[in-house]
Amino acid sequence: MSSTTDKIKGAANEAIGKAKQGIGNATDNANLNADGVAQEAKGKAEGVKGDVKSAVGK
């Protein structure tokens, strides 16, 4: 995948993760909240991966 694709996937996963956390907190659903935390972390990692690919490509 390209660096841009990684960054887009990362941003999407971060946003979905934050939404899951919000819904989990609002409904007192610890599993959904934990899912959101994990997905947000995955998104941040994908964003970093995209940044690294960009830096290496230059």
Describe what is shown at a glance:
It contains two helices and no strands.
Annotate the secondary structure layout.
Blueprint lengths: L2 H24 L3 H28 L1
Q: What would you note in describing this structure?
A:
- The protein is mainly α.
- Helix content is 90%, strand content 0%.
- The protein has helices spanning 3-26, 30-57.
- Helix 1 (3-26) packs antiparallel against helix 2 (30-57).
- The longest helix is centred in the C-terminal third of the chain and has 28 residues, at 30-57.
- The radius of gyration is 13 Å and the shape is rod-shaped.
- The protein starts with a helix and ends with a helix.
Which short descriptors sum up this protein?
58 residues, mainly alpha, 90% helix, 0% strand
Please give the count of helices.
2
Strand content: under 5%
Order of helices and strands: HH
Name the average pLDDT: 95
Which residue ranges are poorly predicted, with pLDDT under 50 across at least 5 consecutive positions? Answer: none
Largest sheet report: none
Our measurement of the CA-to-CA distance between the termini, rounded to an integer number of angstroms, reads 16 Å
Total beta strand runs = 0
Q: Report the principal-axis shape.
A: rod-shaped
Helix content: over 70%
Calculate Rg over CA atoms.
Answer: 13 Å
The helix-and-strand class reads mainly alpha
